[in-house]
Amino acid sequence: MTDRLSQLIQAVEEADSSKLLLEAVQNLADARLEGAIPILIEALSYNNPGAAVASVDGLISLGSVAVPSLLNLLDMHNYTARAWAIRALAGIGDPRGLVTLLGVATADFAMSVRRAAVKGLGSMKWHWFPDELREVAQEEALDALLFVAQQDEEWVVRYAAVVGLQSLAIAICHTHPDWRSEIQTQFNLMSCNDEVLAIRGRVWLAQQKLEQRIKQLDSHNFKQSIEASAIAENESPLSSSDWQDILSKLYEIKRQERIDSTSEGDPRRFQELAATITTTQAAT
Question: Partner of 194 for a Cys bridge, out of 135, 189, 190, 260, CB 3.0 to 4.6 A?
């Protein structure tokens, strides 16, 4: 442990007022040191919202290295800490948080947590996903976001769903034009029917951003540049076992959907995906 990290942690541990604790956690978060993760995680459970916000920001800036600790925190019974952890997972966008965000977006009782989850679903690091798994994951994200946009009673959550749908629409714009059309239809409905003017305004902005993206994709040079960028950014820190875990959780969601609504779905597809992911990861 470096002297600097030791000093920053000591300042957190010795803070004897809310103000000093906030300052100490903020300084620790700003340092962006991987060794600070356990203390930043611990700060999520403090009775100090300012310190929790600073911790979330620090964990997001550290990125995927913080995800295993955040996922471990989700197993605890401290709901306040869990809620802050979900905000951090949503901000990081690591695929390992996908299934958690799917469940929270549609079912959590706290609107602030649902809001964070739906925004996170739209801006996952989709370029990290193996091609075979990306489509399954994006389809689940689309279903969850449309559900929230149509049915959530809190306007701030529907507003966030518009943001999430915009991000997802841009991500799948050239790969799934049918899904893009589905999102555009939802935007048209909300722009006419949602009673909240702020949501209508945000839908209008989302429509403009999406139209700009479609025009850009019509440019051959732009298409080449994003393809090159996607190749350069495709490096993922996730292991084959991580992908297998994500796949098994998505399969469980699909299995439950079939039980609940007799929706179609072939388990063999998931078995084939698992075999493909294992082969692909072994070759890299």
Answer: 190
